[in-house]
């Protein structure tokens, strides 16, 4: 695999593992009625810190092993792939914006889809935004990875 | 019938003193991975890069890139 494929795969795995774990923790705590604003803040902070740390370590490692390719500038193919992947991610984010606006504007309907008896509305919205942000990032990275592997 | 873009880059590289993919990539200012993708038919380059590749081999563009039936 090329430097770019390795780099994208590392970011994708980090995003899936760390934010997947965050989601599972939230669901588990919510089911056991142990969810509080403090625990959410703590989980959120640790997820962000771990993401940054693992990204630094993994990207540095990939760059060390593929140092020749790491310094290459993006060419037209890289830009095409980035544009296409960003376009897919944009659509996911757009759905997220519509869904969040609907959630705020129609609290009675929205609570049927996503709600917690413990959380304040602000924290429910934060988690809703995180879900769509992570979904769009996973979409962007997956689309990029597939484009580099399969071509387009 | 559907048509696809193919190319003779691999053959032409070998006819030009076994030019490496990296050397061709440097000559047309793209990455070696992009040359690999073009050779395999996974990526159709822009017109500008197609002309640059043709210039490297000193051939008209239609002898380097072919627009043929998929079959």
Characterization of this structure:
The complex is a heterodimer of chains A (152) and B (71). Helix content of chain A is 85%, strand content 0%. With 152 residues, chain A is mainly alpha-helical. Chain A has one domain. In chain A, helix 1 runs antiparallel to helix 6, helix 4 crosses helix 5 and helix 4 runs antiparallel to helix 6. The longest helix of chain A has 30 residues. Chain B has 71 residues and is an alpha+beta fold. Chain B has one domain: lambda repressor-like DNA-binding domains (434 Repressor (Amino-terminal Domain), Orthogonal Bundle). In chain B, 54% of the residues lie in helices and 14% in strands. Chain B is built from five helices and two strands; from the N terminus they run βαααααβ. A two-stranded antiparallel sheet of chain B has the order 1-2. In chain B, helix 2 crosses helix 3. Chain B is globular. Chain B starts with a strand and ends with a strand. In chain B, 24% of the residues are buried. The model of chain B has no long low-confidence stretch (mean pLDDT 91). Chains A and B meet through helix 4 of A and helix 3 of B.
Task: Detail the topology: elements first, then pairings.
The complex is a heterodimer of chains A (152) and B (71).
Chain A: H1 3-31, H2 37-65, H3 67-70, H4 76-105, H5 107-113, H6 121-150
Helix pairs in contact in A: 1-2, 1-6, 4-5, 4-6
Chain B: E1 3-7, H1 9-15, H2 21-28, H3 32-39, H4 47-57, H5 61-64, E2 65-69
Antiparallel strand pairs in B: 1-2
């Amino acid at each position: 695999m090329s430097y770019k494929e390795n780099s994208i795969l590392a970011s994708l795995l980090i995003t899936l593992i760390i934010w997947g774990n965050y989601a599972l923790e939230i669901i588990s705590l919510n089911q056991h009625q142990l969810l509080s604003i403090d625990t959410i803040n703590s989980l959120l902070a640790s997820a962000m810190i771990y993401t940054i740390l693992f990204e630094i370590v993994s990207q540095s490692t990939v760059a060390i092993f593929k140092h020749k390719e790491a310094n290459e500038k993006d060419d037209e193919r890289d830009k095409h792939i980035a544009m296409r992947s960003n376009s897919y991610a944009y659509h996911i984010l757009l759905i997220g914006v519509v869904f969040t606006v609907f959630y705020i504007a129609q609290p009675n309907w929205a609570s049927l889809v996503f709600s917690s008896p413990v959380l304040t509305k602000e924290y429910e919205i934060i988690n809703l935004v995180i879900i769509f942000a992570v979904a769009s990032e996973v979409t962007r990275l997956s689309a990029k990875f597939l484009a580099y592997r399969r071509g387009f | 019938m559907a048509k696809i873009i193919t190319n003779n880059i691999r053959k032409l590289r070998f006819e030009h003193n076994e030019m490496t993919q990296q050397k061709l990539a440097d000559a047309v200012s793209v990455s070696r991975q992009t040359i690999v993708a073009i050779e395999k038919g996974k990526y159709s380059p822009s017109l500008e890069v197609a002309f640059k590749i043709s210039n490297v081999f000193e051939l008209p563009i239609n002898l380097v890139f072919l627009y043929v039936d998929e079959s």
